């Protein structure tokens, strides 16, 4: 069984979009809602990447709308705040806060030859920057200065042109005045957002202070002394970009790689194995902030992003190949279906597997391949992975999200029956091993007591202990006890002393887990 040392930074709960800020970023545990939580910005000038806005004209009372979601003109004819009327901001590093503006179908906003507002550019490099100017008296009122230096104005026919002179009035009859609405529920809190908010130099300083204080050697000692035998450490693709000055785009946070080096040294000292998990790939494989997305877009999967990702895997494999505590490299965490197609994923997994095996000439190191989120067929990787030696399928089991059963019994029964059946469907003779790479004790039950929570943890460890590669709890340390294995252990809600300490006999893991299960976890309360 292994423990997460997570890299998340900002939101209050776990994974699948509710997790921490870089899924991505520094390789050691960070609490969701922890020290690096982004503050609520007092004005748009200090907003960050991924902020979603709608903009309403004060003259015709209609919302700016990208016709068809993008690919054509942007006009003021939207009667509701829908996807077509929602714009995503990319904050640009400049003395005056400037933004790229993106529409629902991912095009970027620019001006055509007639100075009309359009959303046709497929790359941010094809557009200029927009300045959003707030009214000092009423912060809900804005004007938008276009790349040509003129203000956007709504015309009588609803079209929008950049032909207004700056310095005008803020009256409700001025076609250059708009009301801005910020979608608070869609705020993103990841590395890109942190950096766009604080700037590169301050972000690196904050990260380095955090890396040096939140997870220490004592945490590795605690993990080892409480019967756990491995850590799963999520990292982002920019971990290998560790030289040169700090920057937000492309991301570069000096000191990042050294933190993972230190984790390996501590793991070696306390006889722990390490799984390095690529949690965020270039462009983001699922669009969540903690998977390295700038604005919620899934842009991973083309030839360029796959090649970049393979290079990252190759660099990680090369750097840590000689560390005896390296147990596995996970090629990608939670690619999202159907945005990431199965054919694309198989192509990448084949290339990533080859990259690891070329650098790591050892029979005791595994390559982990994550199932897709939202897949209609949880067994879709079974036949594919059976062709690789030392291969592992990673599945993540949460009762909190799509299931969210309201009663204790429903949650426990589902784990006993459905989860057990799902695991059995993945484990085949001569096939890949199976790893329950994420689970937790948070659920949707209201009014549950501590005994209920412990029972929920017990049944999950019992069932997931049948997995042929074990399990990892999400996460090690968190402000919410139900997401924090450290808190659960210290409060006696979860018992880990029954976990086998020796992973040198990894070929016998299935047998070890079977014996463990039959012993029914001889519970030793930890004080």
From TrEMBL:
Pfam families: Cellulase, DUF7910. The keyword Hydrolase applies. Keywords: Glycosidase, Hydrolase. GO terms for biological process: actin filament bundle assembly; cell migration; establishment or maintenance of cell polarity; polysaccharide catabolic process. Residues 49-181 form the DUF7910 domain. One of its GO terms (cellular component) is cytoplasm. InterPro entries: Actin-crosslinking (IPR008999), DUF7910 (IPR057232), Fascin (IPR010431), GH (IPR017853), Glyco_hydro_5 (IPR001547), Glyco_hydro_5_CS (IPR018087). The keyword Hydrolase applies. One of its GO terms (molecular function) is hydrolase activity, hydrolyzing O-glycosyl compounds. Residues 204-480 form the Glycoside hydrolase family domain. Signal peptide: none annotated. Belongs to the glycosyl hydrolase 5 (cellulase A) family. This is Uncharacterized protein.
